[in-house]
């Protein structure tokens, strides 16, 4: 049960990261976290402890690619880009998420 | 991420950790930066950011897991699963492992030799820049003669491309003062030899240029071997006086164990034990004396930094032109330029040339054996996986990707190859020792040989390669056919059989190539061994003596040998005895001769060369060399009598085809000799099938200090070595009697290298034969077990065992015959390689090939019959059908 929940949370984080990266610009981890916080108006806070393992897991799965580059303030940073497989995954996750929220919504509304 | 980078991640985990750190540090700094911008003071910002430390640690752990550990864990599962599968069929798994280990072991062993002899650099300073210098005489067909001392001195003084030039030759020396006079194989060297090669003494000093001048000859440098054996590794040996060739010499130094110049190609195949300076007498260094055309030194030089071999060659060619112009008497013949050139070859090439062909052939042979081993193991893995094809089909249906399936097969083949490789390495350790122990002749590079890092890398490399080849076979098969068909036709899988059979064809072809090559070599070897040599080696003992300074020189110094022979002949059990400068098969020096009184034919440019031996009267009787015409050398052919010669039939036929040779006179150097007899042709050169002209002259008319004593024992009698030595010492106490050998042993040794290569190749061929037969067995066995139901039905409706065999093995037989045909064709096409590698090998013999092919077919047929016969007994039609 616990594992299941963890899986779901991870799935959600993957969805958010892939969505952010789907804009096409390569981003480093901090920028991704910052962007999620901004867009969610600081409701969703992403900690390094979950973000980086998620990024590396997705790299391993082939959904994102990474390469070392130089940040705006001239530091060495690892930049992530979404891959074609990642875009397919994003589409799946989005559908899944929509189905799930709709289902949850229906339950909340009609019971 | 590719398979490779995942493997790489496992090894470079430290580098990966650093990358994680970099990435997290960057995050942390950005966090600080943001806090600062939002207006927290740096101290508090830092504190806040550090609260994330736990989170960071978790992040790192998570990243590490994502990158390697997860993958490793699933690999672990695969390995456990694979091991379980292998344990399920321990017999077949063991067979597969042993098959692979034989392939890998043989490869490792041969590669160890190849590495030691061909690949490792020679143990000198900067060995790539060392070259050997040769004389060439284009017009005489001479491609690699040793330069003479005056030529070497001219090269030394005139060139700008060499930083060192050195030379040496080898001699038998006598060392007295021990329990009995000992013979020491000695190199006479120029002092520059040690500096050119970069040798440093282990004790004392080595020679300096002054040691090569007259009056400084009485110093010696000991080899490590002699120092240990004869001087008990005495550290104070430097300065000691020893007696060499009856004169006192001072030991000035000892060389380290790693130094030697007795490599094949530059020295004779015997260990050099002592070094003395080559004294530069005017006799040797001038072009006027007797030694002007004596070519017996090896010349080694070091290329100057930045000078290429072609450039050095070009400059030496210029020097050769100068010499030709300066000495027309030497480098022209009858006004014709004899094409004198100086050639430069790398030392490594010269040293390895003789072994390269044989080692290449042997290495090729073991690679072929490994191919068969891999195909067999692949067959085994496939057969095993077909047993569980239901499982594979279900796993595929459940979403196991092609990669995942391949990985499972690869893990299994890695397990097999890993075990096979480890076992093979053990075999190789043993095999290498056996190979070295049995290797004829002396090769210093093998003294320091070991299974070193190069060899280990090679073994690991071929084990991994084998794993890939083995794993790829079943993976390919499974990735091709569809899931549905495999689930539908459980137990009757026919697809993929063509590929499997093609593999059997490959195995058969490879095995036949080896078999035919080995068969031809064995035939060639037998022909060499059974050739008519013109002498009888049985019951003959051969030993060497060396003239001493103390013997009486009038009327001729060789009288002392006559006394030796007389004393030996008087021993009980001795049938005959004699002396000679060379015994049969000993490759005696050649001389140029001409027939006296015959007008010079200007169109005759061929050289009249004959091998030349100084012998006593007893020589012919001792070796039972038949006298065809006239008489042999006799004891009356002494100094004050007419100079005589005995020639062989080959010379008589070549020079006097229409008349008798007896009474004819020939000139050899300054001597004019009257031919008094013609004897049978004797094999003088090992491996040679044609017999060249030979000249024998009387020991009592020409003195030579280095002599062989030959003794024939009467049939059934034994003559002890000690008795012979005592007989010699009764005449001359300080005489060293050495290199005592039975002549039959020398005969064996003359083909020992050939026998060695042929034996190895034969062993590999037999191995290949059995392995490929096992491959045929495996596939038929598999066919029978997968078609049990069908066979049961056929048996139930009245088929006989013979029909079943025909049914099951017809396809296999077809492919076996196809493989046989391809193998024979390949063997014929490649036989040139084997012939080039092993001298004396005969031409292709269709009968041999046919016999080998028939033999192979018989073995294959047995391998096909056995599993069918075995399974037929086990099949009970009723229960087999019910089981489905």
Fold and architecture overview:
The complex is a heterodimer of chains A (111) and B (884). Chain A is 65% helix and 14% strand. Chain A has a 3-stranded antiparallel sheet. Chain A has 4 helices and 3 strands. Chain A starts with a helix and ends with a helix. Chain A has one domain (2-102): Orthogonal Bundle (Arc Repressor Mutant, subunit A), CATH 1.10.10.10. The longest helix of chain A has 27 residues, at 84-110. Chain A has helices spanning 2-21, 29-39, 48-61, 84-110, and strands spanning 27-28, 64-70, 76-82. By secondary structure, chain B is an alpha+beta fold. Chain B contains 28 helices and 24 strands. In chain B, a hairpin with a 5-residue loop joins strand 3 (162-176) and strand 4 (182-189). Chains A and B meet through helix 2, helix 3 and strand 3 of A and helix 2 and helix 4 of B.
Task: Please summarize what this structure is.
The complex is a heterodimer of chains A (111) and B (884). With 111 residues, chain A is α+β, with helices and mostly antiparallel strands.
Number of domains of chain B: 4
Q: What is the CATH level 1 assignment of chain A?
A: Mainly Alpha
Give the low-pLDDT segments of chain B. Answer: 486-493
Number of domains of chain A: 1
| Helix vs. strand class of chain A | alpha+beta
Task: Classify the beta-strand content of chain A into a percent band.
Answer: 5-15%
Spatial shape of chain B: globular
């Amino acid at each position: 049960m616990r594992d299941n929940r963890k899986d779901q949370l991870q799935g959600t984080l993957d969805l958010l990261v892939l969505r952010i990266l789907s804009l096409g610009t390569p981003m480093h981890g901090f920028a991704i976290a910052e962007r999620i916080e901004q867009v969610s108006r600081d409701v969703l806070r992403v900690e390094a402890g979950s973000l980086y393992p998620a990024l590396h897991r997705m790299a391993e799965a082939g959904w994102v690619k990474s390469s070392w580059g130089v940040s705006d303030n001239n530091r060495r940073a690892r930049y992530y880009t979404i891959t074609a497989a990642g875009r397919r995954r994003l589409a799946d996750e989005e559908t899944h998420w929509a189905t799930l929220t709709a289902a949850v919504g229906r339950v909340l509304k009609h019971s | 991420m590719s398979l490779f980078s995942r493997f790489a991640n496992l090894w470079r985990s430290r580098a990966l950790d650093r990358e994680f750190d970099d990435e997290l540090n960057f995050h942390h700094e950005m966090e600080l930066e943001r806090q600062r911008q939002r207006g927290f003071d740096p101290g508090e910002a830092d504190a806040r950011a550090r609260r994330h430390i736990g989170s960071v640690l978790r992040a790192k752990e998570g990243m590490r897991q994502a990158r390697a550990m997860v993958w490793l864990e699933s690999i672990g599962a695969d390995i456990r699963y694979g091991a379980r599968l292998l344990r399920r069929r321990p017999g077949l798994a063991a067979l597969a492992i042993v098959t692979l280990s034989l392939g890998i072991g043989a490869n490792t062993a041969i590669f160890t030799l190849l590495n030691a002899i061909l690949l490792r650099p020679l143990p000198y300073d900067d060995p790539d820049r060392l070259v050997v210098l040769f004389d060439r005489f284009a017009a005489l067909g001479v491609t690699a003669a040793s330069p003479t001392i005056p030529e070497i001195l001219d090269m030394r003084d005139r060139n700008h491309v060499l930083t060192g030039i050195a030379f040496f030759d080898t001699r038998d020396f006598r060392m007295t003062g021990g329990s009995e006079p000992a013979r020491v194989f000695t190199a006479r060297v120029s002092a520059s030899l040690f500096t050119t090669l970069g040798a440093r003494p282990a004790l004392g000093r080595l020679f300096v240029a002054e040691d090569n001048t007259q009056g400084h000859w009485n110093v010696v440098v000991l080899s490590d071997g002699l120092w240990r054996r004869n001087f008990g590794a005495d550290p104070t040996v430097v300065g000691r006086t020893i007696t060499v060739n009856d004169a006192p010499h001072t030991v000035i130094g000892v060389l380290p164990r790693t130094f030697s110049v007795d490599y094949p190609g530059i020295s004779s195949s015997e260990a050099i034990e002592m070094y003395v300076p080559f004294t530069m007498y005017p006799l040797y260094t001038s072009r006027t004396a007797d030694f002007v055309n004596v070519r017996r030194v090896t010349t080694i030089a070091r290329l100057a930094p930045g000078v290429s071999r072609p450039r050095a060659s070009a400059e030496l060619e210029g020097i050769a032109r100068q010499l030709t112009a300066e000495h027309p008497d030497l480098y022209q013949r009858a006004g014709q330029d004899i094409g004198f050139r100086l050639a430069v070859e790398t030392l490594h090439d010269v040293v390895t040339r003789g072994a390269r062909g044989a080692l290449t052939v042997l290495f090729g042979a073991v690679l072929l054996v490994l191919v068969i081993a891999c195909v067999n193991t692949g067959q085994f893995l496939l057969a095993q996986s077909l047993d569980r094809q239901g499982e594979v089909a279900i796993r595929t249906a459940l979403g196991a990707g092609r990669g995942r399936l391949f990985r499972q097969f690869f893990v299994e083949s890695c397990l097999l190859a890993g075990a096979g490789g480890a076992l093979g390495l053990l075999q190789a350790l043993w095999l290498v020792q056996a190979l070295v122990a049995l290797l004829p002749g002396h090769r210093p590079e093998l003294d320091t040989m070991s299974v070193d890092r190069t060899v280990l890398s090679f073994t690991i490399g071929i084990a991994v390669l084998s794993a890939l080849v083995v794993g790829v076979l079943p993976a390919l098969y499974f990735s091709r056919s569809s899931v549905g068909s495999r689930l539908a036709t459980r137990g009757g899988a026919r697809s993929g059989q063509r590929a499997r059979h093609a593999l059997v064809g490959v195995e058969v072809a490879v095995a036949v190539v080896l078999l035919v090559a080995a068969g031809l070599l064995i035939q060639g070897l037998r022909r060499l061994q059974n050739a008519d040599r013109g002498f009888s080696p049985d019951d003959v003992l051969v030993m060497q003596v060396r003239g001493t300074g103390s013997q009486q020189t009038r009327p001729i110094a060789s009288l002392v040998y006559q006394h030796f022979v007389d004393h030996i002949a008087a021993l009980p059990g001795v049938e005959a005895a004699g002396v000679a400068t060379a015994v049969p098969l000993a490759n005696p020096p050649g001389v140029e001769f001409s027939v006296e009184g015959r007008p010079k034919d200007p169109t005759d440019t061929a050289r009249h060369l004959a091998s030349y031996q100084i012998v006593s009267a007893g020589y012919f009787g001792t070796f039972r060399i038949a006298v065809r015409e006239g008489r042999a050398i006799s004891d009356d052919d002494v100094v004050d009598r007419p100079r005589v010669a005995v020639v062989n039939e080959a010379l008589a036929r070549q020079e006097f085809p229409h008349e008798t040779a007896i009474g004819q006179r020939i000139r050899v150097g300054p001597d004019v000799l009257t031919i008094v007899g013609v004897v049978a042709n004797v094999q003088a050169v090992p491996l040679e099938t044609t017999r060249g002209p030979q000249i024998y002259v009387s020991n009592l008319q020409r003195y030579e200090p280095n002599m062989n004593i030959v003794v024939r024992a009467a049939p059934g009698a034994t003559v002890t070595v000690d008795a012979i030595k005592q007989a010699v010492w009764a005449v001359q106490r300080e005489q060293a009697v050495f290199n005592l050998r039975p002549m039959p042993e020398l005969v064996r040794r003359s083909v020992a290298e050939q026998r060695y290569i042929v034996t190895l190749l034969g062993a590999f061929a037999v191995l290949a034969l059995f392995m490929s037969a096992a491959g045929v067995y495996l596939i038929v066995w598999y066919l029978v077990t997968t078609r049990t139901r069908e066979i049961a039905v056929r048996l139930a409706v009245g088929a006989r065992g013979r029909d079943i065999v025909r049914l099951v093995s017809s396809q296999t037989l077809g492919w076996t015959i196809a493989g046989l045909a391809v193998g024979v064709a390949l063997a014929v096409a490649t036989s040139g390689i084997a012939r080039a590698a092993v001298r004396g090998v005969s031409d292709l013999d269709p009968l041999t090939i046919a016999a080998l092919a028939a033999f192979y077919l018989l073995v294959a047929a047995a391998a096909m019959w056995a599993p069918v016969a075995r399974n037929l007994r086990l099949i009970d039609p009723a229960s087999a059908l019910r089981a489905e």
